[in-house]
């Protein structure tokens, strides 16, 4: 069986989360090639089996191999290798090292030179403790690559960034999804670092941007699985007594929380039902305008997860846009309540959203995507396209109407009706709406409804902050309906 075939089978096993089957297949394939994508797949498998030394070794080799190749998808593999190093260091309780690697992953995604000496690892005080804070990590968006005109508008209007400044330091790099993944992961790392004692070894930086090439004989040594480290342990290798089902043995659907929600014109209130939540330990992070991450969460189906386990966190992908700075949360003995401030007041959400187990960054599951690995060859497969920006709610609100045909969904106006007579004025408006951008459609809906059908604007900047007045035709007087 060829190395390519073995690697394909190994990457398929990673995709199917069959970690134990993946490793021997990738071991055989890697005897003939040091393909970064194969090394990253094996690193992920070793990490999931808690063979952390082996996972670090493979991530380091993947980074070195990618830098030596220096072409094609080399940058993507370097980004993924630094991210994988960060995850493994976090599992080992080396939180400062984990943040450094996550930052290097972000810088590479921003298009910065691969061999740049950026001094990330030098952010330490006189005691050698890492000084980067959670608040600094959340604010670290200056170099974020722009993946759409929507992102540019959001950052200018919501984050208060000047357009010229924003565009001078950020551009489209093709690695926007990888940047968001590393940024979201950093928040988890720094949030944990904030909780550990000042004398914890995890506050020390011992990592370098360019790892030393591991010795070859390490490949022959099969690492022994190690249990997860607990936050606050001074000994990273201290065994953890596990009672009941191990992390990863309970299906995600059984782990998800029971959710209820209601909404007003300004807010959406989401109730997440969980027992015995410790408010002092809870981390609730509102990301950009469409995502909330919460950890650690007690699970009714599996109460044995530890703070570092994937099951201890959840990412809530929201059904609409919010203003993070105006949103808030609270805790009672039986639930967590999120009060989400709508970015578009008056726009009805068709659903509150969905829960994903673990930390999910902008459409990614937080791991190197196995589907990209599955078709790898010794020369390395092409990278998958970057994730798309968060989608707008797919179901538009149905506004009250006295029409016998019921409420109208303005998003679907004109669907399936192209056969109408082109001389019909309704045909013109349907085609106009159908060919408009999302912002133009939003402006058309708002202006038409607020003006009682007497005005139609496609300029969202003009109508978004004002009520569109009713302007009746000449010779006609507008009167309020009186019952």
Automatic annotation (TrEMBL):
Ranges for domain SGS? 398-483
The UniProt annotation puts the region (Disordered) at 201-251, 363-418
The major lineage groups are: Eukaryota, Fungi, Dikarya, Ascomycota, Pezizomycotina
Feature: compositional bias, Basic and acidic residues: 210-227, 406-415
Which GO molecular function annotations are given, in alphabetical order?
protein-folding chaperone binding
Q: Where is the CS domain?
A: 254-353
- Member of which family? Belongs to the SGT1 family.
Source organism: Canariomyces notabilis
Tell me the protein's name.
SGS-domain-containing protein
Q: Where is the composition biased (Low complexity)?
A: 372-382
Top-level taxon in the UniProt lineage: Eukaryota
SUPFAM superfamilies with a match to the protein in the record: HSP20-like chaperones (SSF49764), TPR-like (SSF48452)
Sequence ranges of Pro residues compositional bias: 383-392
Name the PROSITE patterns on file: CS, SGS
In terms of InterPro entries, this protein maps to: CS_dom (IPR007052), HSP20-like_chaperone (IPR008978), SGS_dom (IPR007699), Sgt1-like (IPR044563), TPR-like_helical_dom_sf (IPR011990)
